[in-house]
Amino acid sequence: MFDSRQNVKKIFVIFLIAFFAKVSSFFIFNHGRDIQIFEYEYIAKNLLAGEGFLYNFGGTSYRAFVQPFYPVFTAVIYYFTNSSHIAMMIIQCFISSLLCFIVYSIALRLTGEKEAFWAAAISVFHPGLTVYSIFKLHPLVFDTFFYLLTVALILRLFRSFGNKNALLIGIVSGFALLSRSTIIPFLLFVVTFIFFMPGKIRFKTRYRYIVIICLSAFLIYLPWLVRNYRVFKGFVFMQTCSGENLWVGNNSAASGSAILKSGESIHTKMPSEIHDSLMNLDELNQVKYYKEYFMNFIKKQPFLFLGLFFKKFYYFWWFSPHTGILYDESWLFIYKIYYRIIALFFGIGFISVLKDRQKYPVLLTIFCYMVSLSIVHAIVNVDTRHRWTVEPLMIIFAVIGLSKFFNYFKYSKC
Question: What's the rounded Cα separation, in Å, for the pair 412 and 406?
Answer without folding.
Answer: 10
